[in-house]
Amino acid sequence: MQDVLDPGQTEKLIAQRLLEARHRRGWTLAEAAEANGVSVTHLSRLERGERQPSIGVLIQLAWSYGLPLGQLVGEEPQTACHVFRGGEAPLHDGPDYKYAALSGITGLNLLEAIRLELPGSSRTSRAAQHVGEEWLLVHSGRVRVEIGSESFDLEPGDAAHFDAQSPHRICNRGRARATVFIVSASSPARRGNGHK
């Protein structure tokens, strides 16, 4: 059975880890906001637990701080291999959908993998936009993916690969729950952006 973390606890934990990660990096709030393409106000609210970060913002912050996404959402750091057993990865409440982090090799996080659980007949997610590229695979259900001005209807087994800097969003087109696996790859040039 999957663990579903209490949303309030998750937000507080993520807020604390975001603040600690920025301090470890030695960045001011303004430097971190600029490096991540978010406003100082928004980042400050995330660090105080007043706002719930979107998946795209979490991925961007994890990359810029040099952390696996799993560490930011409260999972324990792993060693050389991070193994996931079926549905054992804990589900977190995101602003749009529940998600589970499926990656977490400290220091090697050029890839971030997540599993999204989209309830039936759900609303369209907020647009995400972050550096790097993204690959998604529909495991179950029927979804629509909007990338820039284009939209694609995907069925189980269908995949999409795109530049994550294009605004993108996803919605469940069916009545049953849909499960989507997403792998995001950061840009090596972005990781070496000169910020200390």
From TrEMBL:
InterPro entries the UniProt entry points to: Cro/C1-type_HTH, Cupin_2, Lambda_DNA-bd_dom_sf, RmlC-like_jellyroll, RmlC_Cupin_sf, TransReg_Diox_bact_type
Keywords tagged on the record: DNA-binding
PROSITE patterns membership: HTH_CROC1 (PS50943)
Domain of life from the UniProt record: Bacteria
Listed GO MF terms: DNA binding; DNA-binding transcription factor activity
Domain HTH cro/C1-type: residue ranges: 18-72
Entry GO CC: cytosol
Protein name: XRE family transcriptional regulator
